[in-house]
Specification:
It comes from Microbacterium ginsengiterrae. With about 400 residues, the chain is an alpha/beta fold. The chain contains 13 helices and 11 strands. About 35% of the residues lie in helices and about 20% in strands. Strand 5 and strand 6 form a beta hairpin.
């Protein structure tokens, strides 16, 4: 395999942009990424465009990437459209890496973009419902109307952590408070107000032990990256892709998110590195309990240490293993198709030393993981990347 590097990244703010189209959001992130990489569309051989909801939200059921590249005046290239639930952007990243590392292309553009916010919440929630097996939808009354159906799953994850691992509701609030603190330092985050544990516990109840400030918000946004060969022309600011893996849910899965375990293990094996070699991580925290369970599934945290990690600040910016310095899905936001690429944007920014007040000192390696979809209550697909300088 050839060496592949991220040469440029771009990202829009995450939030609610009713007057901005999907094309405009994507174009903004693409322009920034190409300028950062010092390339134009003449240099791009292929595009991997990740989006989930354009069909439901805007009636754009296919050729989503082509509509964006045409809008931007691009020439002839291979445009690949990618959809894989909340792992869509991460899946696009994996395909982009594969195409360069495998020798098919020298330079590609990877994009994740989503317009998810609607005053009709049921319409937004319909997009989430598409990420569940239609024959095994398991959620309670009100799911898909007043809340995302995935909240029902995370309420069960919360119950599992409380029952089996001794995690408390206060621990969930501590993890959420960390996310909001990091988001307050991220100028691109959707939620930029620090929140105390008490505020989070007192916030509007959603389901089970979950309050609204423990859950990721619905919003819009886009992020992009230029991937190119690193073995021909290494430049200052290039970030190596040390591992890129995608794994689906096995038929005999029994844990809360087994696909995360498989993608993480594959990434550790591919890179020859381990959790102890990472300086920080960006994990899939659609809710605070979701982050906690991902600590263990990724291999970063030994099972049984969840309470200690939550209570000692282990995952804060100054902790031993900072998790989600961007604010994560809870604070940065979760425009579904953009999330995986937003994680990559944060990892590259940190490794370059450009994260400002949320910068992790001496960061050289990052673990990035994003999951998506549900089959029988378990995460259907997970992508894991290891980036380094």
């Amino acid at each position: 395999m050839r060496e592949a590097v991220v040469r440029g990244v771009g990202m829009t703010p995450m939030g609610r942009f009713e007057e901005t189209s999907l094309k405009e959001l994507a174009a903004s992130a693409i322009d920034e990424a190409m300028k950062d990489a010092g390339v134009t569309f003449d240099d791009i051989q292929a595009v991997f465009f990740g989006n989930v909801g354009a069909g439901i939200m805007h009636g754009q059921n296919s050729i989503r990437g082509e509509t964006v590249t045409h809008h931007m005046g691009a020439g002839v290239m291979a445009v690949n459209n990618v959809e894989n639930a909340c792992a869509t952007g991460a899946n696009a990243m994996h395909l982009g890496w594969s195409s360069v590392a495998g020798g098919q292309y020298d330079t590609v553009l990877v994009v994740g973009a989503e317009k998810l916010y609607s005053q009709d919440k049921a319409k937004s929630f319909e997009v989430f419902m598409g990420g569940m097996d239609v024959d095994f939808r398991d959620y309670g009354e009100g799911a898909g109307v007043t809340r995302s159906p995935f909240i029902d799953r995370y309420a069960k994850v919360a119950d599992f952590l409380i029952r089996e691992r001794g995690v408390s509701v206060e621990n969930f609030a501590q993890v959420a408070a960390k996310a909001h603190a990091n988001g307050a330092l991220n100028p691109l985050a959707q939620r930029r107000t620090p929140r105390t544990v008490e505020e989070i516990l007192a916030a509007r109840h959603v389901l089970g032990p979950l309050t609204v400030l423990m859950c990721s918000p619905v919003g819009d946004g886009a992020a992009a990256a230029v991937i190119t060969r690193g073995d021909l022309d290494r430049r200052n600011g290039d970030v190596q892709i040390l591992a890129s893996q995608l794994r689906s849910l096995p038929a005999d899965a029994s844990g809360p998110s087994d696909s995360h375990e498989f993608s993480a293990q594959a990434a550790w094996e591919q890179s020859g590195l381990g959790p102890e070699d990472m300086d920080f991580a960006e994990l899939h925290d659609a809710t605070a309990p979701g982050e906690i369970v991902s600590w263990v599934e990724s291999g970063l945290c030994p099972a049984g240490d969840e309470v200690k990690w939550a209570e000692t600040g282990h995952t804060t910016l100054g902790g031993q293993m900072p998790v989600n310095p961007s604010g994560g899905l809870v604070a940065r936001g979760h425009p579904i198709g953009a999330t995986g690429m937003a994680q990559v944007y944060e990892a590259v920014t940190q490794l370059r030393g450009g994260a400002g007040q949320r910068q992790i000192a001496d960061a050289r390696r990052a673990f990035v993981q994003c999951g998506g979809g549900l089959i029988k209550g378990t995460t259907a697909v997970s992508a894991a990347h290891i980036l380094g300088i």
